[in-house]
Structures are given as C-alpha cells and as structure tokens.
Amino acid sequence: MAEMNLCLTEYVYKTWFQSTKAENPTESSLEIVCPSKLALDNLQKYRSLIQESVNKIAQGNYELLFKVGKVESNAARGDTKSAMNPPLFTSLQKSANKTTKLNTRESGLTPHFNFESFVTGSNNQLAYSVAWAVAQSPGKQYNPLFIYSGVGLGKTHIMQAIGNKIIQDKPNLKVVYTTSEQFTNELVEAIQSGTRNNKYTSNKFRKKFREADVLLIDDIQFIVGRESTQEEIFHTFNALHLAGKQIVLTSDRPPQDFVDLEERITSRFGSGITVDIQKPDLEMRTAILRKRRDENQDSISNEVIGFIAEKVDTNIRELEGAYLQVLLEARAKQENITVDFTAETLGQRVPDKRTIVNPNAIMNAVCKYFSISKTDIKGRRRTKEIVVPRQIAMYLLKDMTGTPLIAIGELLGGRDHTTVMHGADKIGQKIREEPRVEQDVRNIKQLIFSM
Ligand code: ADP
Ligand code: MG
Predict the structure, then answer these.
(1) CA-CA distance, 165 to 111, in Å (whole number)?
(2) pTM of the predicted model as reported, rounded to 2 decimal places
(3) Considering only 276-285, 355-364, 383-392, which range has the smallest mean pLDDT?
C-alpha cells in the first residue's frame, strides 16, 4: 500500500484507488470492486501493480477480477485515519487475517506456542536456529527436521512455532500438525470407513496429510508397534519429501535408537537434520520463569523465582507446574509469596519422585496387585497374565525411578534393555488406549505409596 502510494501521483491514487474494495476472495481469485465503469477502466491500467501489491499483502497468487459495484468511501465518511488506507486494502488485510485464524484452526496448532515465547539458551540454541530457518524456507534446507529430547523440554513448543510462523508469513501454505497417536486414530477411522476402491485409507485421510506443504508429526515414538501406522507414515513421508514439502518430526529419542522400527523408516527420519534439546540450566530456568512472570504481571519476586528454578530441575513443564502451583496456592490461601511459603508449598511435590521410589517397592506392588510371584515376573513365561504385569513393571521402573534400562532388565530376570524399552512403550500406549490398563497403573502407583 505504501509502495503503491509511492509509485502513483497523489491525484491518481485518490481518484481511482481510494474508492475501490476487494471482495469474495477465494484461494485463487479476488474481485476488485470499482464504483464506476470509468474507475474500472482506469484501474485496469494499473493491473500489474495492483496484482503485485495484492499478492504481497495477502500472501498468495490471486487472479484479479475487476467489476463495477457499490463501494462505500472512507473519505466520504470523513474517516481521515483510513483515508490513506482505501477499502481495497483494509478488506484485503482483513481477509488475510481471517485466513491466518482459519488456517491456525485447521492446522491443529496452538497459537501460543510461538518463537516469541520460546526462551533460548545453550541447551536449545541449535534447535531454535534450525527451526527458525525451516520456518523461513520450508522444504528447502533441512528436510526432514528431526527434534528429540526428554519430556517437557520444548519439542511441541518449537515444532508448533514453526507451523505458526509459516501460517503467519505464508498463509497460502497448508500446515498440518498432528501427533502420531492422532494420526493413528484417524488412520483407524479411515480404514474402518474405507471405500471399496481404496483398500486401506479413505481419500479424505490421504488428502489431509499428503496435500500438506508442511507436515508436523509430534511424538513419533508412539508408532512403535503399530504396523499400519508405520506403513502409512512411510508412504506419506516419501510422497511429501519427493514433492519438496517440509516434514518436521519430534521424538523422545534419536532416529538410530528406534530399535523396533524398520531400517527403511528410521533412515528416512534421520535423512535430513537431527537436533536435540537438553535440560535447561539454572540460568535458563530462571529466565523462563521471569519471562512468564513479566508477561502475566504476576507478583512474585526474583528471589522466589530463583528458589523455584533451583528446586525444579527436571524439565520445563514441571518448572511451570511448580510456579503455577505456588501462585494458585497463594491465591487460594490469600498469602504472600515468600520463599518460606514456596518451600512449604513445593515441599509436598518437589522432593524428586525419582529418589523416593525404590525399585523394589515397584516390584512388590506390581506382584501384589496382580497376585503373581517374583519368580513369575522375572521368569520366562509369556502368557498374558504374566506379560502385562511384567511390562507394567518395566513402565513404572522407567517412569518413576532413575534406574537405567539395563539395570531394569537385570531386575526383571536378565532381560535386554531393548525389551524393557519396548515393554515400557507398550504400556505407555495401552494407558492411552485402554482405560482398564490406565486404571491398573493408577492403582499400582497408589499401592506403591501406601506400602
Ligand atoms: P515436550 O513436547 O518436549 O514434552 P513442550 O513443548 O510441551 O515439551 O514444553 C512443555 C512446556 O514448557 C510448555 O508449556 C512450553 O511452552 C514450555 N517450554 C518449553 N521450552 C520452552 C522454552 N524454551 N521457553 C519457554 N517455554 C518453554
Ligand atoms: Mg510434546
């Protein structure tokens, strides 16, 4: 708009541009409504200039359709502020904003996970830089981008930041965010309602994922043990990659650690760039909480923030959780947030659960709950009544103690660490899919703490 103004004499600008507007934007065309045939003829002369500016503002490639129609003039309403912002451009900008909102909803992204709210430090600098580069030129340089880290360290956040940035800057690109579980669920649905012609997946499912310009799949580790999901991801991956579309994957481990996946799949995952995010140091944890405090204008001192940051060193999700807990408790009890108050509040949860849960307590609780013996759980029998408890033990030992996988394997009768990993994954998956298992695990946890 400023550009156009520069290129045109004020007379031409005021006479012809100020009284036009844009209407009925579709994906590929836009109507330019002029108040008279005379205006229309004159505007046509500037077609390529308008075209260029329109494409720039609306971030697309629109065919312009000129027509005569009723246009309310800003100048006529005495609206001086927008007098230099003719209806053509305000309506264009509005539709660009609208597209962004619509795209965000359709993409499955959460707007709040963006680059601005992502604090960087030495633990995530590389991931941040690469993510930023991908958002600038998707599909060009780093493809696929594979991000891995432990839980709560910002994978989902940085991945969604890429998507949100692309939607904002390039609204004509189709961004699709999904978790591997959601992908699986949609795939299962598609298979169930699959048409005769298409044996495995309905067109709608394929269309959604294969027409993406940017595909973001979060927590890819959950495809382990799901054959049809792996197959579909493999083909989706190839189709998109071949077409130069951007793919971003996150996971709790690097590609080469997927021992239970086929080589052809893991080698695809690692064929672009792989970056990790490490745990944040004290300085970074402090910076994250301060930023949050300043943004929300919470009344909480640097001293208290320092205390929380020092206490909670596991991950950012827990750090934020502890911060929130202190704020909420103080509000509920109408108390000032002192270091003492904070220590007392966090005292109930912070003493790291990893140090208090003894691996033996887990073994005892699992055996007691399922009424099986230690010999059974450590033994070789592979009936369902034994296998599930055994895998639950793997899951809990991995989740609740700092015990290395190899040591867990030892505890369970000399099993391989990959077996432990696989068993734990299996239960993680079942917890989400089978309410029964979820309930069992919850009960066992209670049992652990009550024994
Ligand atoms: P992951 O997907 O690795 O489990 P998330 O992306 O869900 O972790 O992050 C957990 C929480 O921590 C989210 O609320 C996220 O916004 C926040 N978070 C993570 N990393 C950062 C960061 N670098 N700066 C600010 N907030 C962060
Ligand atoms: Mg996540």
Answers:
(1) 9
(2) 0.62
(3) 355-364
